[in-house]
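Priority: low. Protein: Phosphate-specific transport system accessory protein PhoU. Input follows.
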Amino acid sequence: MRLRFQRSLDDLKEKLLVMAGMAEQSIQRAVEAYRTRDLSICDLVDHGELAINRFEREIDQMALDLLAMEQPMAIDLRFILAVIKINADLERVGDSATSICDRVRDLQAFPVADLPVDTPKMASLAAAMVRKALQAFIEADASVAESVLSMDDNVDKLNDTAYFTLLNLMKAQPELAPQALNAIMISRSLERVADHATNIAEDVIFWVRGADVRHHSLNSESQSA
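Result:
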């Protein structure tokens, strides 16, 4: 009985990792589409989003079936709950990729502008957070997951810098407002990807240690009160 259950857990983990690879690829493709203005890449992202949505439904059903049939306890229960939450975050990473491609399509109506923001660096950091959060999941390593949480501040700072830089640019050069507004939206999408990576890392910590580290800033406030 236990061997069969363990195989089901392994199958669930393997399917989630396949979906994770697809979500990460979607973000990489979306940023490449923005860099090159290549709409054929956006078509690939849209096609990939359909597959990600299908995987999300299948993984949720597998997890719910295991909860209903096996009634797991302790770390096995936490694992399945973590998978359900990580599954939702990966689907939203895919949504962020399609949002970036929507902006790329909007930009086709305007000349290419050399905007003073480092979108590739932000994309690289956000993608690195997703990869590291998934590494923590694969290795069941809460310490690796903790390192992801500290990376989020860097992406937030880049997003803030992009917002204010582009806002000032629009004031100085109103003719670049459409390009700058789309760049702000893309920066916001990448910031959300980093947030989803943070959520995944928090779910890994919950699974491995049984500790809820969400809203850690609130916990810090309560400890200092």
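Residues 129 and 151 are 7 Å apart (CA to CA). Residues 220-225 have pLDDT under 50 and may be disordered.
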